[in-house]
Design goal:
homodimer, about 110 residues, alpha+beta, 3-stranded antiparallel β-sheet, 3 strands, DNA-binding, WH-like_DNA-bd_sf (chains A, B), transcription regulation (chains A, B), DNA-binding (chains A, B)
Chain lengths: ~110, ~110
DNA sequence: GTGGGTGGTTACCTCAAGGTGAGTGAGCAG
DNA sequence: CTGCTCACTCACCTTGAGGTAACCACCCAC
């Protein structure tokens, strides 16, 4: 179960990490799941304004394959699916904090 | 002189930072300029295997516009152009270190 | 029956990032 | 003379990520 979409072709760690978070909305999904753990699909759609259902689905599937998010299906009617960060996802988010601080200080306030 | 390609439309700091480093080869360029300061164009082309001249040029231009790299032209024959990280670029690279460590530990060695 | 909410799937389309290959013009090696 | 280096520029083309919209089964409230 390799992490990343092009295993074995990474030049360095940043290159590899960029591949995992490279989707247009992935860091926003991670940010949302960090702020609101165990979110349902519809909640995420509202938490990440602008993302379409198709793209949200595919991003979540990729993050799940990479071991970043956990997908829990409850066999109920109506169906319920909850997404949460795995420990790996939590560690990824922690590694993203300095980048977020940099962006806030130098891009948003720049 | 705004930093980033879509000023004013960022949701959060990570979103903004991702825009600055969003090019396919930008983090590799930053990594190369950190390891080999004041590199010439041809050196960068060799340090970032696979990048084409056109894309390397445009990525360097964008990084220059964002205040990440400095471009120094020496009016000589043959022409000489040296690229280096600005203080802002150095701080960006510092903010990328944890992400690089994460990628090395969890993707490359995963 | 109509509409809404649940969590998706499917087919189709767009568009911009990136790749390809040629050209530039001065100088230098062979 | 040929070809290479330097640091690009230009015109063209490809590709795939992402966007659009329809559709699915199921249930509830109105």
């Amino acid at each position: 179960m390799p992490v990343g979409r092009r295993p074995g072709s990474y030049v360095c760690g940043i290159d590899a990490a960029m591949d995992v978070i490279g989707g247009k909305w992935k860091v926003l999904i991670l940010w949302a799941l960090d702020a609101y753990p165990s979110s349902r699909f519809g909640e995420l759609r509202r938490l990440v304004p602008g993302v379409t259902e198709k793209v949200l689905t595919s991003h979540l599937r990729e993050l799940e394959q990479d071991g970043i998010v956990h997908r829990e299906v409850y066999e109920e009617v109506p169906p319920r699916v909850e997404y949460s960060l795995t420990p790996l996802g939590t560690s990824l988010n922690a590694a993203l904090v300095p980048l977020g601080v940099w962006g806030r200080e130098h891009v948003l306030e720049g």
